[in-house]
Amino acid sequence: MLTINVSVLLAVIVFFRLRRRTQARSRNEERTTAVIILALGVLLAPTPVGQGIVNILGQFASSVTQAGR
Fold first, then answer.
1. Which residue spans traverse the membrane (predicted)?
2. pLDDT in single tens digits along all 69 residues of the chain
């Protein structure tokens, strides 16, 4: 339960950080955003939502691979 709440908080933070213009960001801000996104991914991965995302992305990747043949 706590994982979902922290994930939602990180998703909101990522949303507001990515709304800013790219030119206005420093390298330190970009690194911080990357670390926050990585933490969000680690928190979402073991949850049912994370597993659903992995399944959807896996199906998408396999369809793209088969379409390229």
1. 34-57
2. 555 677 788 888 888 888 877 676 788 888 888 888 888 888 777 878 778 888 888 888 888 888 776
CA distances from 65 to 46, 55, 58 (A): 26, 15, 10
Identify the three-state secondary structure at position 69: coil
Residue in the structure block whose two tokens are 């659903």 = 52
Residue carrying the six token digits 């955003």: 33
Cα dist. 48→9, 15, 25, 66 in Å? Answer: 17, 21, 33, 27
